[in-house]
User: Fold this.
Amino acid sequence: MEFFVTLIQVLDSTIRLATPLLLACLAGLYSERAGIFDIGLEGKMLIAAFFSAAVAAVTGSVWLGLLAGIAASLVLSAVHGLASITFRGNQLISGVAINFLASGLTVLIAQSWFKQGGRTPSLFGGGRFEPIEFPFADAVSDVPLIGPIYSELLSGHSILVYVAFLFVPLTWWILYRTRFGLRLRAVGENPAAVDTAGVSVVGLRFAAVGICGILCGIAGAYLATALQAGFVKEMTAGRGFIALAALIFAKWRPWHAMWACLLFGLLQAIALRFQNIDLGGVVIPVQVMDALPYILTVVILAGFVGKAIPPRAGGEPYVKER
Amino acid sequence: MEKMPKWADVVLIPLISLLLATILSAIVILAIGEDPIEAVNLMVTGALGSTYGWGYTLYYATNFIFTGLAVAVAFHARLFNIGGEGQAMLGGLGVAIVCLSVPWPHWTIALLAACGASMLFGAAWAAIPAYLQAKRGSHIVITTIMFNFIAAALLNYMLVNVMKPSGSQDPATARFPEAVHLPSFQSLFSTADNVVFRGAPVNITFFIAILACFAVWALIWRTRLGYEIRAYGFSETGAVYAGISPVRITIIAMLISGALAGMMAINNVMGEAERLVLNSTENAGFIGIAVALMGRSHPFGVFLAALLFGFLYQGGAELALWTQIPRDLIVIVQGLVILFTGALDNMVRAPLEKLFISLRKEAK
Assistant:
C-alpha cells in the first residue's frame, strides 16, 4: 500500500514536471517542422518566466502575467525569425544568442525592478495559478485504486497542465488534418515546392516561429507562476534543452513528444524524490538520473535504436533563386 | 570580382557589429537608470587602469583564447562545436587527476603532463559527437549540447562521490600540492620594490595560449591537414572529389577542437583555483562562440576578441562592485555580439556590399 502511495506521488510530480517540457517540446515541434531549428527554447522560456512573474507580482493578476510572458517570448521569437528567415542567418547561432540575451536580461531587469538579487517577489493568491479540483475529487479519494488516481493524480493541477496536454491532440490535428499543417510540414521538407504552389514560405515560417513563441511563453509562465511561486535566476535549468532532446526522442511527432516528455518528467521526479537509488547492492547515483535524458537522446540520435531523421530543410535558409 | 575589399570583410563588419552591440547595451544601461558613459569609464579603469586589472583581464582572455580557438578550428571544417564547455570541464578533470595522483618534482614537468591530460580528456569528450556526426550523421550541435549536460553530471558525480577529500563538505578536490603551482605574473614580473599584478590570477598559461594561436595559424594555413580542413569546410562535395575523406576531417577537426577547449583547464584549474571545483569553467566554453565569430575564426582575430571579452568580464565585475548594474550585463553584450556577428551577419553585410559596389561604379 505504501508503495502505491509513493507511486501515485511520483507520477503526480511527473505530470507537474513534464508540463513545461511538453509545452516547450511542442513549441520546438512547430518551429522545426517548418524548417527553423530552435535551440533558443530555453531562453524564450526563461524570459517568459521572468515577465510573467514580474507582471503577476506587480498587478496581482496571474492572467496578465501569462500574457506578459507570452509577449516577451514572442519578442525573442521575432528576433529569431528576423535573423533566420528575413536575413537568412545561421539559425543555431541565433538560438545561442537568444539564450544569452534572455539569461542576461532577466537578471538585469529583475535587479533593476525588484532589487532582490535577480529574483521577483514571491507570488501568492491571485498572482499564482491555483490547482483545479475535479468534481467529487474529495468524495472518491477513499475508493481503493481508482480514488487516488482520480483525486491525486488527475485532479489538483493548475489549468496550464491541462492546457499543455490538450495541446497534444490539437497539435496532431493541426499538423495532420488541416491545410495549414500540411503546408507547415511541407515547408520544412521542401520549401521550393511550397513556393511553387504559390504559398509564402516566409509567412509560413514566421507563423511557425510565432506559435513556438506562444507555447514557450506558456511554458515559462507555468514555471514561474504555477510550478513555483516567482522567478529565480536561471530557473529554467536546462529544461529548454531537455525539451529539445524530447523532440528528437519523439522524432518530431506530437503524441510521441508527450510520451517522451512524460518519460523525462518521470526521470526528474525520481531524481527529485530519491536522490541515490539503491537497487539491491548497486547504487544508482542521482547524477545518472540527471544525465539520462541527454544520454538517451544521443543514443537515439546515433540511430542505433531507430533513426531520428529531422525535417529535411531544417536549418537551411530558403533562397528563392538558385 | 569580389563584392567588397577583404579589409572591409575582416575589419569593418566586426567593428560595425560591435558598435551595434555597444549601442544596444548603452540603451539597456540607460533603461535601468544608469549612466553608460560613467559605466564605460568604470570598466576601463577597473580592467585596464592597473596591473591588477590587467591581471584579471589577461586571465579571462587566456580562457577565451583557448575556447575561441576551439570553436574557430571547428568552424573551418564547417562544424559548430557548442561543446567547448563540456570539453573544458573534462579537461579540468584530466588536469586534476594528473596533479593529484603523481608527486611531481617541479611545475614544468607537471605542466607538460597537465597539457597532455587536458588535451586528451577534452579531445576524448569531443570524440563521441565527432564519430556520431561523421559515421552516423547525428547533428553535432545537438550531440555537443547533450554532452555539455552529461559532462556537468559526470563532474558533479566525480567531485561529490569520488574526488572530494573525506570530511570535506565542499564538492571540490583537494588542493594541488605546492610543487605544481604555476608561476603567476606577480612572481614573474615583480621586483623587490615594485610588485605588479598583485593577487591577480594571470599566469604563465597566457604564453601557452599565445603559442596555441601560432600553432593553430600554422596548422590551418601552413599544413596539408589545415588545407584539407578548409577545403572540406568550403565545399564538402569539392573536398570529396579531391580525395579528402569527410569522416577523417570531421573527426580530426573535432579532436583538435576538443583538445584546445580542454587546454583551458591549465589556466583556470591549475593556474588559478589550484583545485577542481564545480562550475569551474564559468561559461567560458560558450564565450568561445562569441570570440570565434568576432575574430572571424582567425587566430589573431580570436586573440583580439578574447582580449576584448577579457576586458568586458573584468570590467563587468568592477561595474557590479561600484554600481547597481549586475555582472549579467556582460551576458547581454555577449548575446548581442553573437547575434550581430553571427546570426544577423547579412543585415550588416548587405548594405555594406551595396555601398562598395556603388563606390566602385562611381570610380570608373
